[in-house]
Amino acid sequence: MSIPMLNKLHMNGYDVLSVNNGPWRVCTQGDRLASFTSREEAMAYAAALPGYKKRSRQVQSHIGG
Known about the structure:
- This protein is of the alpha+beta class.
- The protein is built from one helix and four strands; from the N terminus they run E-E-E-E-H.
- It has a domain at 6-48.
- Strands 1-2-3-4 form a four-stranded antiparallel beta sheet, covered by helices on one side.
- The model has no long low-confidence stretch (mean pLDDT 86).
- It comes from Pseudomonas iranensis.
């Protein structure tokens, strides 16, 4: 039985990861943005994106009148 191998890096607030030497993926916590064959391509893509910062979920109050 083999153990899955995870390679994970961070760039500009994005996760850049590869599982079992598969494609490199650029992700946020909830979305996969793109996949690449090399780590360099994935890092370049993440570097070109605007900085990502997880936004807290805000409750909007409606003031009626």
